Amino acid sequence: MTAATVEDRGPGRAWVAGAARLMRIELRRNAMIWMLPVAGVLFWALTYRRSMALAPLWNVRAMTMQSTTIAVFIPTVTGVAAWTGTREARRRLTDLLSVTSRSRWRRQLASWAATTAWALGCYLACVGVLYGVTATQATGSGPPWWPVLVGAASVPALAALGFTAGTVLPSRYTPPLVAMGAFLMFEAGLELVHGAGSPWQISPLVTGPYQLGDYEGLATFYPYLPDLPIAQVIFLVGLTLALLGILGLPSLAGGRWPRLVAAALTVTGVLSAATATALAGTGRLDPHGMIAIPALHNAADDRPVAYTPVCSHTAIPVCLHPAYRAYLGAVSTDLAPLLDELAGVPGAPARIAQTTTTYRWTDDGIDIATSAWTMHGTPPVYTIVLPNQAGEPALSVDQSANRVKGRIARDLVTAVVGGGSDPAQQAVTAGVLKGVRPVLGSEPPDLGRRITPNTPAAVAAQRFAALPVGTRHAWLVVHAADLKAGRITLDQLP
Amino acid sequence: MTRLVHLHLASRRVPAALAALAGCAIVLWAALHRHWDAYGALQLPLLFETACASVVAIATASPFGDPERVTGHRLPWLRMATAVTLTIAAAAVLAATGIGTDLAGGTTTAVRNLAGLTGLGLLCAALLGGALAWIAPVAYALLGVYALYTQWHGPALTSPCIWPGRPGDDLGGALCSGIVLCAGLVAIAIRGARDTPPPAG
Amino acid sequence: MNIDITDVTRRFGRTRAVAGVTMSAGPGVLGLLGPNGAGKTSLLRMLATVIPPTSGRIRLLERDPGVAAQRRAIRRRLGYVPQHLGYYPSFTVVEFVEYFALLKEVPAAQVPRAVATAVERVGLGDKARARMRTLSGGMLRRAGIAQAIVNDPELLLLDEPTAGLDPEQRVAFRGLLRDLGQTATVVVSTHLVEDVGAACAQVALMDGGRIVFHGTPQELTARGEGRTAAGDAPLERGYSTVLAEARS
């Protein structure tokens, strides 16, 4: 076999064909294959089960997926890659392989690429299952792809980290120590994230303002800001290039040109990673709760996402963002009697609509503000936010709905009847709320309950509550303004 | 006999294993001197316990293979003694890191976690070989880390089978951990670490 | 000359493994004999471009292995079987040989045929799909030889290639060596003097890092004639005689 024959079919085609065959062997015999069931089980236990317990909202599931899936892949991929990196020394093939004409670097890149390919395939399969199931449950906007991309960029970087460590230190202790060391490094990195301008949020485990965690208030009414994910992808690609470049630097790795290429990759990788880290350090808390990086920010992402709300069929419709469709029934069904009774009454809203929250960094942490729980516009619209929108991620749909139902009832009755100590107002309030009392819970604690038993007010309240709904509604339409103004006495109540 | 023990320990590269254990302990001790938030403080020791357990399990690999297996009745005891010695050494260095620092869960928790993780590693060594013995402890550590996480964000994982998530004085967790360690010690004493090169070498 | 080395030395710390070897060889089979520690393996590793010499000049296949581009060209046309053959247990025989064919830059289109030919030549055709970990010691050795010849090398370096082969296989292997020696330079390091007598046109005897004899097997045999040196065969007596003279 002469050098000339190698070039017979053109160096480009020969290179590709040779590389493809080499990859085929590496892929068939890669150790990552044996780790796939372990990674799959861990993904199911740590990511899938947890995600399915969350509300079917794309934002929270995608962000949870990013952080927990990468956490699963850190030790598994780095450990196996380190194991693969130690392979030549472990199998005493160093001499035999060193006399082949292809450079050591190319050989190592093939091993790394095969490990990465299997790990990436596993990652994408896991994410595919999670996204697929979520697609059957979630409503509203489509899936955010940036978390998927950050995870996908993490896999080659983790494989490169493990592989390089295994190659440099081919000890049998290297795989577990690298696996745990990498996990520690990424976890410790989270400890250092302080504020929206921390360079440590370049860690792919961070999906947004670290102090907020992954919760439902983000990236629904406004786009999923890609600023931090872009920086993270640049960092991960840079890290991958730098680590792979380091493999090609030793004199044994190859000839002069491959080493120059390796040096260029290393420098490019280091610069990219450093730049991305610096960019992450310029981040600021976006009013909509995500990390904005000025140099990467697109002003178009500040515009709210257009949507058509989903509304209940109650007399006063409750309208939510379509992503929160799962909450609609839980919020509106129990309130239906009250909403039917108050519809059209002066002071009552024409609609109950979900609104957004805004975010501001303070000395005490992140302040989440909202303009909700007030009437806006003409005809009046009463605005609400769901607790899960405002920093309470552990609540279920029903728990979250229960929190808002009581407040809605209180605010609407107060808006119509007036919340004062006037006996007539108290009697009407007690009567109106009688039908929805079970859903009020502890909110409000005293509304409509101040009436002393066996007093004229209590008698009037019982009398008012006993009226047919239609009669009460008709009376309220006519007299609500006077009642609220304190111009109705107990005797005037029907 | 002393000479035999000495040579057996040398064949398992016990000095290198002890050096690795000491290295883990030093890094943990240094790390414990900085302030960690609640997650980090709990998870940090578990990562090092896993590393130590992996080191103990990997040290079971025999460089001799069949010639050693056919040498007689002393070998199981030597294997057992090596594993027990290294486990005790690992427990000692982990306990030492708690001196003057705030080791989350205390020494009891650290020793319990280490024992169970070591048992998993020894079982894995008997099944897959010493060089791959780290897979089970590392995979299990992720479950442990998650169990600790769920103490803040429920629903909490409270099964005693996931003992890192249980308090240090929990009997169920200690029992599970102890049973796994005993099973691992028995397996490694009787079978030794698997010699055959594993698939996908 | 495919091998042209001049005053080559190699040190490992304070130990001088190869102490000023000058040698040249063209196509044909060269047997490298010598006692343990004579420096045979170190010399072969230098010829295989695994390690560079501490001093001296080496030219292989008319090229300088000290220059990266030329070393790569040499390696494309080189076959090497080390004393201790490493392998990936999960690879099949075909994959093992194919892996090396690709690393030696055999054109991808020619790889399947080259692999099949190499595997057949070492008599492992019926084990082509067997995993390496299932092979016997002799079969592993033959798989190692197959990877060395898969690129049809012009320079083939074999360190103890017949260790572990049964007599029948050794006879077949000698035939293979003679066949390869028609076009390539084959250097065989061995302790088995009868292999040298049967397969080698030239023989070099090393002791203490030096070549103390270089000639034909017949010339080595002649050195032992009429002597009382140890050995059951004439070639062994020649071997012992030369060693004794070198050490005296």
TrEMBL record, chain A:
Residues spanning the membrane: 31-48, 68-86, 109-133, 145-165, 177-197, 230-253, 260-281
What's in the keyword line of the UniProt record?
Answer: Membrane, Transmembrane, Transmembrane helix
| Superkingdom, taxonomy of origin | Bacteria
**Which protein are we looking at?**
Uncharacterized protein
This protein's species is Rugosimonospora africana
TrEMBL record, chain B:
Q: What are the leading ranks of the lineage? A: Bacteria, Bacillati, Actinomycetota, Actinomycetes, Micromonosporales
Q: Which residues cross the membrane?
A: 12-32, 44-65, 77-100, 120-149, 170-190
Keyword Transmembrane assigned to the entry: answer is: yes
The protein's UniProt keywords, in alphabetical order, are:
Membrane, Transmembrane, Transmembrane helix
Q: What is this protein called?
A: Uncharacterized protein
* Species annotation: Rugosimonospora africana
From TrEMBL, chain C:
Signal peptide as annotated in the record: none
InterPro entries per record = AAA+_ATPase, ABC_transporter-like_ATP-bd, ABC_transporter-like_CS, P-loop_NTPase
Annotated ranges, domain ABC transporter = 3-233
Annotated Gene Ontology MF terms?
ATP binding; ATP hydrolysis activity
Keywords, A to Z, come to: ATP-binding, Nucleotide-binding, Transport
UniProt key word Cell membrane: no
Keyword Heme attributed: no
A Pfam family that the UniProt record links to this protein:
ABC_tran
The UniProt entry's sequence similarity note says: Belongs to the ABC transporter superfamily.
Q: Which PANTHER family match?
A: ABC TRANSPORTER, ATP-BINDING PROTEIN
Name of protein: ABC transporter ATP-binding protein
Its taxonomic placement starts with:
Bacteria, Bacillati, Actinomycetota, Actinomycetes, Micromonosporales
